[in-house]
Amino acid sequence: MNKTTWNPNVKVRLIGEGLFNLLFWMYFPFLTVYFGKGLGLQTAGLIMALPPLISIVGSLTGGSFADALGRRPVMLIGTFLQMTMFILFAVSSSPWINYVAFIGINIGAAFYRPASSAMIADTVPKDELRQVYATFMTVNNIGAVLGPIIGAVFFFQHRQLLLWTCAIVLFLYFITIYFIVSETLPVRSKQKDVTTPLKYAFQSKWSGYRLILKDRIFLLYVIAGTCSLFPVMQLDLYLPVYVIDNVPKQPLVPHLLDSFQLTSQSIFGYLVSFNGLLFVILILPVTNRLKNWSERRLFVVSTLLAGGGTFLVGWNNNIWFLFGCTLIFTLGEIMRTPVTQSFIGHYAPEEARGQYLAADSLQNTLGKTLAPLAIYASGWIAPLGIFTIILLFAIIGACLYLQLFRLYSPT
Predict the structure, then answer these.
(1) Which three-class secondary structure state does DSSP give residue 261?
(2) Which is it for the CA torsion 15, 88, 115, 54, positive or negative?
(3) Which of 233, 225, 221 is nearest to 368 (CA)?
(4) In the list 86, 104, 131, 304, which could disulfide-bond 167, CB 3.0-4.6 Å?
(5) Tens-binned pLDDT, residue by residue, of the chain (411 aa)
(6) What is residue 263's three-state secondary structure?
(7) Based on the number of CB atoms within 10 Å of its own CB, is 133 exposed (0-12), middle (13-18) or buried (19 or more)?
(8) In terms of Cα–Cα distance, which of 126, 241, 119 is closest to 177?
(9) pTM value?
């Protein structure tokens, strides 16, 4: 499918979402630091655990209404809600009001996302879906690489300007959706009773979670995954707090008097960008290189690399040492990504695969809910102690994976 022949809906979304994703990565990695300074690290650690849980509700609601009312109205509502919350964030000086705005942004994004994905499936031929999704992923990764470097300056020095820019981009995107994007919901899918699909969505999600409790192996898999994700998610949670508070200003190239000096904020921005760049460059080569590794080996090694790389961050403040740590834990993250998808594919019974896939998302939700506890604990535990806790989560995750594959041997 040539890009010049793409459906206008897809083109509009690619440009709009790509631009907004760039802006997203200019503010999101620094929010933990912002709330930590305004509300205290312990309070910030607790409140950052709430958005993932609220996003589940927003996603289920958005998906249900997208099937009942249509993709376009749900995308408009989600975009408008995000725009409104960014305006609130920009005009408010209260951390608590800004936290409410952040929650609203998360709800709007979660509400928007299922309708957006469904619109791609509605308009793109099945044999071209991978190409289109890959293009969207590439554009998003570009934002993840460039956004943190730019945001390290704008978020701390020109935050209101950045937030107003996000609001304006969303307003323009809202207008574009309204006038250009057309509805793609198949006629046969329209339903008059919107409460029925919503109720079904929650029942389906809950039945998926109940399924875990009845399957000892899968329960072990989810708990192990939750522990292994704990270190990975610190990149957006504890690491910005640590780097900005503990890493001093230093030159990018040591021993050169005229070397470009980086502040702690800029250093963290470079680390996040380096993480995104590694993902773009290495995901395919690493996956191909390790295609003959067993799932057991991949799960264990990836978990230990992610935990070990994060743990090493606390031992030296040199920027190039931190780049090396980022390389280590990013390799663990990259190794983990494809194997999680393949495990469910062959483990789940064919007649219950949908339920298992729904239940599989629980480890990501639990990981995002537990990960902010590192920020909470940092209020009374020294950084090296926090990094030790992060490493312990990784070790526990690796041990649980070893136990998992003692009970289950994939064929």
Answers:
(1) strand
(2) positive
(3) 233
(4) 86
(5) 555 556 787 888 888 888 888 888 888 888 888 998 888 888 888 888 888 888 877 877 777 777 778 888 989 999 999 999 999 999 998 999 999 999 999 899 888 888 887 787 777 776 666 667 667 777 777 888 888 888 888 888 888 999 999 999 999 999 999 998 888 777 655 555 555 555 666 665 566 556 666 788 888 998 999 999 999 999 888 999 999 999 998 888 776 655 678 889 999 999 988 998 898 888 778 878 887 888 899 999 999 999 999 999 999 999 999 999 999 999 998 888 767 766 776 777 765 665 666 567 778 878 888 888 899 898 889 999 999 999 999 999 999 999 999 988 765
(6) coil
(7) middle
(8) 119
(9) 0.80
SS3 262: strand
Find out whether 319 and 267 touch, Cβ atoms under 8 Å: yes
Residues forming beta bridges with residue 251, ordered by sequence position = 261
**What residue has token string 């994007």?**
181
Residue with tokens 């207008």: 175
Asked if residues 325 and 313 have their Cβ atoms less than 8 Å apart, the reply is yes
Distance CA 296, CA 409 (A): 9
Which two three-digit tokens encode residue 153? 């300056």
Residues 253, 261, 312: CA angle, nearest 5 degrees:
65
CA distance 149 to 165: 17
Alpha-carbon distance of 24 to 356, in angstroms, equals: 31
- Distance between CA atoms of 258 and 253, rounded to whole angstroms? 9
Q: Give the Cα separation of 338 and 59 in Å (integer).
A: 23
Residue 261 φ then ψ, to 5°: -85, 135
Residue with tokens 């064929």: 411
